[in-house]
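Dear colleagues,

For the upcoming journal club I promised to circulate an example of a predicted protein-ligand complex. I picked one with adenosine-3',5'-cyclic-monophosphate because it came up in last month's discussion. The inputs are reproduced below in full, followed by the predicted structure.
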Amino acid sequence: MNNIEKTLSIIKPDAVERNLENEIKEMFKINGFNILKEKKVQIEKSEAEKFYKIHQTKPFYNDLCEYLSSGPIVAMVLEKENAILANRDLMGATNPGNAKEGTIRKKYGISIDKNSVHGSDSIENAKIEIDFFFKD
Ligand code: CMP
């Protein structure tokens, strides 16, 4: 049975800064994702705090929000069969040092903070995160 899902992907400031936007989009396309929507934006720290609310009790929360708002990012709605899991597989482990060969974070990630991409981790969060960037 097919289970087409949508997920939110963000190309983070470290990757946009290194002009990796097109290479990363190409990796999504080669792996069967349709990019339904995309926009390049720079968000305020207060907006990053809202986006990453789920991590508000974590020790890295402040740095994470500083970082996401530090430069332009590309937000995208990706669609594919089982897109949420498929995107997490393609991104690889949060820490690029632990990411498998062939994943985006292995190829482009610099550190656990500068790990080049974000992807929704559940159906519920995908809806919330897509609305965050694309609700009009
Ligand atoms: P992301 O998938 O965008 O979700 C939250 C981000 O917090 C994560 O990627 C990392 O870039 C960042 N982060 C920083 N430190 C940690 C940590 N110790 N564990 C998990 N995520 C971390």
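Two points we might discuss: The mean pLDDT is 97. Helices lie at 13-17, 21-30, 45-51, 61-68, 83-91, 104-108, 123-134.

See you all on Thursday,
B. R.
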